[in-house]
Amino acid sequence: MALCMRKSPKLINHLKYRMGLFDMITPSSWNSTSSHHQEFLVTAPIAHNLGNPDADLSVKATLFSACRFKSTKPEKQLNSLNDADDNKVLDFPGGKVRFSPKMTFISESPEERTQCYRVLDDNGQLILGSNLVQVGEELAVKMYTEMITLQTMDTLFYEAQRQGRISFYLTTIGEEAINIATAAALTADDHVFPQYREPGVLLWRGFTLQEFANQCFVNKADHGKGRQMPIHYGSNKHNYFTVSSTIATQLPHAVGAAYALKMDRKDACAVTYFGDGGSSEGDFHAALNFAAVLEAPVIFICRNNGWAISTPTSDQFRSDGVVVRGSAYGVRSIRVDGNDALAIYGAVHAARKMAITEHRPILIEALTYRVGHHSTSDDSTKYRPVDEIEWWKLARDPVSRFRKWIESKDWWSSEAESEFRSSVRQQLLHAIQVAEKAEKPPVADIFTDVYDVPPSNLHEQEKLLRETIRRHPRDYPSDVPA
Amino acid sequence: MATIVGAATALSASKSFNSRKLHLRSRRSLSVSERKGSFLVVRSDGSVVHKAHRAQKLIANAVATKADSSAASTASKPGHELLLFEALREGLEEEMDRDPTVCVMGEDVGHYGGSYKVTKGLATKYGDLRVLDTPIAENSFTGMGIGAAMTGLRPIVEGMNMGFLLLAFNQISNNCGMLHYTSGGQFKIPIVIRGPGGVGRQLGAEHSQRLESYFQSIPGIQMVACSTPYNAKGLMKAAIRSENPVILFEHVLLYNLKERIPDEEYVCSLEEAEMVRPGEHVTILTYSRMRYHVMQAAKTLVNKGYDPEVIDIRSLKPFDLHTIGNSVKKTHRVLIVEECMRTGGIGASLTAAITENFNDYLDAPIICLSSQDVPTPYAGTLEEWTVVQPAQIVTAVEQLCQ
Where is each Transketolase-like pyrimidine-binding domain found (chain B) (predicted)? Predict the structure, then answer.
């Protein structure tokens, strides 16, 4: 494929013209450093401007041969395509790649871990040079009060479980900032697909304390009609999809919802939450991949809180957390300080805009710590040191950090604090009392909603059950209306 | 999990067809309602003839036409002939025209047209977004379908082979069947999950799965199995219109069945069984491909003087115990012929249901003919013997009627 270089000036001009790169290639550029050549090769759309593949090949050959005269060894003339220092491009399905004769493995861990976006320091002071989304007084106070509400709700319901009044509970202690700040940055139209540690999002959207209590106490007023465990909230009114116990299954759901929103061209996105453990599930990988391929407007929020029940992240994955996986799937990602409410607010705000206007998924890894036990069925002191838990609870509490910031702006005071806390506590205690005394769901609700209309076999089974209850009333709870 | 072998086997038969019919595809798909004036007949050798309208009585074939809704299928309109996969496509297309929220997702359903050509041409007509090619992750695109359904779409998820949906079992069992219930009726999941299954021609064990028995227990889903072009189109439409999640089982070897179906719109009922051949002596219950083995055996039985009643149960969950019950009350003998494995198969479940409900009407124990509890072998002769053959059916009827 050697071409005579006598024609080179004309040829190069011809090439420049053909490729629209007049500015970039000058004869002197052939002499420039290899990095320049590399840049040229990678960014210039060599083949795309030339429709004819044969022309492409000949142009390439010309280029290579033109460069070849700058390199040295004559015996390499036979392998012109493979050989020249600066022109190494291969054309595989999926696009052009440069190749290299030097065998290099990409390291399994980066030299430096991905940096973490944070704007408030541990004392609630704004870090100099931070770029953040402004949060006004009203919004900031609302965020703070909702965080306290969430904390109080968690404390009281947890105690209720310990007293045997509800069967199960799961707290969000330590992750209040993630819950509330993400919700604050979204709109009511965004579809939320939670894992189970995000009741704060529902709280923000207007689910009342009484509704939370009804679900936990499993009474007739529960929107779920008593069919799920406590904390498995769901409300179509608030675009909060019912919690399903299975890990990470909500990720593909979110992609599907984003696909629906994209088809309907709505100004809304899908948002889904999961933990560090959930990122090991197959559904995580496929959902990210799908979202990238479909260009679906979905925000993936990973609450990396260090623990998946008793499994620490060092046993969960060996990558640099979850954020690096985004780029593996072609998803734009960011790592955020999960205990910094302002940083989260800003990141989600920006992510939402990108997701909707650019039709792309975004991955946000919020680093945080699970201060509470996994659930009421867990005692985390069995697998982690108590002082570690205590330190995170006191020194790195996201709620107090945010309070320091709003107090420094004179938007909050300790009087307001005690007043609000006692008021919320009263409301919650009242809600619990009401929920506990309320009627339980009726037997008929065992059989409805399995299908849109109960089929004959379910009618029959209901009849059989009622018969049995009637005959053996002592074997069945007395407070369930037949 | 894309299989090249399986798809190639099924496609090679229809490839010659499709290439010739390609230029007619546009006319067919555009003129769904215009077909009354003329119709196209595709012969088995692949040639296509354009016939002018003339009154024609329905060609009776070995598979009898439906007993009910006969107004649609009898002779006033001649109807049009097509293959089962085309009937599926026609049903799909009509529903996609009718309702803009209907969409399809699966592997190779878009530009490739589906590995069994059920979605051929739809991507060109409706666009890439409504007929979506997905990456290879069955659990996840089924999950995606569930999420889309909860958000207001009506997706149809195609498994390239039903066996691949084993990967989707988590989503189907834990979410698809459950979320309407656990959300207290707040979120509905009007999804259709369909695909070919059953024992084909030497597709190997992994591609010869019969999943209907695994899915049967899942509360909250409905299951139907189609067996003729008529009921394929009708069930497809009914499944799409249903508010419940429906799993539609097709069979790899039935895609090229030809039948004349009505021009006018019709929908089959998801919960009804089909009376294939009324009779007096014995009730034979079957579905999907075994229907044809049973009808073949029926010919032999009729020659031997028996009068079998053949019912294609069609609805695998729930069973149409009304039709089945009436038949049992008439004949007092039941033979179940299925392709599932013996243990835990549809037949096992059906035997239990009949015994529970109609025990007094039975003159003899129910006989259930199923495949053995073995993975389907590849060798052709071995494979033939894992599937119930007409000779076995004849013997079983003779035994029942002693």
Answer: 82-257
Which residue in the block uniquely carries the two structure tokens 């085309």? Answer: B86
Residues B289 and B382 in one domain: yes
Catalytic (active site) residue B207: yes
pLDDT at B282: 96
Interface contact flag, A249 B143, Cβ < 8 Å: yes
- Write down the pLDDT at residue A335: 97
ipTM of the complex: 0.72
Q: Inspect the interface and report whether the beta carbons of B318 and A249 lie closer than 8 Å.
A: no
pTM for the model stands at 0.77
Chain B residues with CB inside 8 Å of A287's CB? 140, 143-144
- Choose the closest CB to B187 out of A242, A255, A282: A242
B212 classed as catalytic: no
Count the domains in chain B. 3
Active-site residue, selected from the candidate residues B80, B180, B207, B251: B207
Cβ–Cβ below 8 Å for B146 and A253:
yes
Q: What are B368's strand-pairing partners? A: B336
Are residues B290 and B328 located together in one domain of the fold?
yes
Residue B87 · residue B116 · CB < 8 Å: no
Instruction: Give the model's pLDDT for residue B25.
Output: 39
> How high is the mean pLDDT in each 10-residue block of chain B (402 residues)?
38 40 39 42 48 40 40 63 96 96 93 90 92 89 95 94 91 92 94 94 89 91 96 97 96 95 95 96 96 96 96 95 96 96 93 95 96 92 93 95 88
Distance from CA of B238 to the nearest CA of A (A): 14
**Could you tell me the CA-to-CA distances from B299 to A180, B304, B394 in Å, in that order?**
71, 9, 10
Q: Confirm whether B76 is domain-assigned.
A: no
Mutate to test the interface with A, among B126, B144, B241, B271 (most CBs of A within 10 A): B144
Q: Are residues B89 and B175 in the same domain?
A: yes
Which residues of A belong to the active site? 159, 245, 374-375
pLDDT tens string B370-392: 999 999 999 999 999 999 999 99
Q: Which of B234, B261, B288 is the last residue of a domain?
A: B261
Cβ(A231)–Cβ(A207) below 8 Å: no
* CATH, residue B362: 3.40.50.920
Distance in angstroms (rounded) separating the CA atoms of residues B274 and B268: 10
**Domain final residue, candidates B236, B261, B286:** B261
Query: Annotated catalytic residue: which of B138, B212, B250, B339?
Result: B138
Per-residue confidence (pLDDT) for residue B262, from 0 to 100: 94
Segment (H or E) for A294: helix A282-294
**Residue B167 falls within a domain, yes or no?**
yes
The Cβ of residue A22 has, within 10 Å, a number of other Cβ atoms equal to 11
- Could you tell me the CATH number of the domain that includes residue B188? 3.40.50.970
- Specify whether B37 is located in the same domain as B118: no
B26 touches B120 (CB < 8 A): no
In three-state secondary structure terms, B399 is helix
The whole-angstrom distance between B95's CA and the closest CA on chain A is 17
State the CB neighbour count (10 A cutoff) for residue A382: 8
CA B27 to chain centroid, in Å, comes to: 26
Residue B141's closest CA among B129, B155, B161?
A: B155
Contacts of A232 in chain B (CB under 8 A): 182
Q: For residue A228, give the nearest of B146, B182, B271 by CB distance.
A: B182
Co-location of B216 and B306 in the same domain: no
CA distance B355 to chain A (A): 15
**Between A299 and A477, residue with greater pLDDT:** A299
The verdict on residue B77 lying in a domain is no
Together in a domain, B95 and B196: yes
Range of the domain at B40: 3-53
B208 lies in a domain?
Answer: yes
Distances (CA, A) of A164 to A169, A430, A479: 11, 18, 17
Whether the pLDDT of residue A87 is over 70: the answer is no
| In chain A, % of residues over pLDDT 70 | 82
Instruction: Give the pLDDT confidence of A224-256 residue by residue, as tens digits.
Output: 999 999 999 999 999 999 999 999 999 999 999
Same domain, B242 and B101: yes
Nearest CB neighbour to A450, from listed B153, B170, B219 = B219
Closest chain A C-alpha to B142 CA, distance in angstroms? 8
Contact A227 B181 (CB under 8 A): yes
Asked if A290 lies within 8 A of B140 by C-beta distance, the reply is yes
